[in-house]
Amino acid sequence: MAAREPQYDASKKMLGKDKLSRIPVKVNAQADVLPKPDWLRIRLSNNPKVAELKRMMREKSLFTVCEEASCPNLQECFSKGTATFMIMGDKCTRRCAFCDVGHGRPDPLDESEPAHLAEAVSTMQLRYVVITSVDRDDLRDGGAAHFTQCVQAVRKAQAGIKIEVLVPDFRGRMEKALNAMASGLPDVFNHNIETIPRLYKQARPGSDYQWSLSLLQEFKKRYPGISTKSGLMIGLGETDEEVRQVLRDLRDHGVEMITMGQYLQPTPHHLPVSRYLSPEGFLALGEYGKSLGFENVASGPLVRSSYHADLQAAGETVS
To answer: Where are the domains of the chain?
Structure first.
């Protein structure tokens, strides 16, 4: 494990009580905006399943990262009755410059959330579910015990279901977090590295590249039978060689599955897109990842960490 990192003080970056902000950091809102290429056009759906699923989420006080992070695949996934559930509220204690999830002082944990989540999964008859969360630096274990309760509740409600967790970095709390998760292990453990180390201070303030690598490695050491997974965004200012180095680092730390997709600027107040990588460029990075020994690689402009996660976990090609 890497040397213990300084404790992250969430209070220094949080707003007043009950306030919510979607403006993460100061960026150059006047920067030239690159036109979106044709391959990033998204077909919108009028499928009533989308509205139905949103209604059910609100009734059960549940959130999806699909909505909160303005995912470009929301229409497709909701139309198919699938979603990535975001637990522990809709307020994050970090202010990542690429993320559209709101920032503010978090609400207390909802003790009924595991039961509501399990009920929603059962109602949707899901066979594969992704559970993620906002960062909760205000909690002693970073929210790991709550993750465990959600996993336990879902398994009890839906026999045979496969569960993927997409966790925050638990920075400064790794030991407590991994201990807390022992009684409710997932089928896939996912933590996104997000970008290259050179861009961490700008894109992921409060996070640490080596810490994220160590979290993935330590989980794999403790639970070798569970697949580990990570994800990268392209278009924040990295080079292809820097991406290839991150892929090598992930493999060196035992990560088995990887996703790579195009960063899309949520608002003018977020980091601008530095480049749009072509489908051929994503294919080349994907092939490089396969050459390193990743068991499954999903690489394409609209690929996201939980997009077609069920297919990727099953070893099918995703693009």
So the answer is: 46-313
What angle (nearest 5°) sits at the alpha carbon of residue 177, between those of residues 150 and 173?
140
pLDDT at 250 over 70: yes
Q: Which residue reads 């991150």 in tokens? A: 246
Q: By the 8 A CB rule, do 93 and 46 touch? A: no
Nearest CA to 298 among 175, 192, 170?
Answer: 192
Query: Rg (Cα) of the chain, in Å, rounded?
Result: 18
| Partners of 37 in the β-ladder | none
- What is the model's pLDDT at position 98? 79
User: CA dihedral defined by 96, 101, 107, 111, rounded to 10 degrees?
Assistant: -110
CATH topology of domain 46-313: TIM Barrel (3.20.20)
For residue 43, give the amino acid letter: R
Supply the mean pLDDT for the chain. 83
Please report, for residues 72, 161, 187, 303, the alpha-carbon distance to residue 307 in angstroms, rounded to integers and kept in the order given.
10, 17, 16, 6
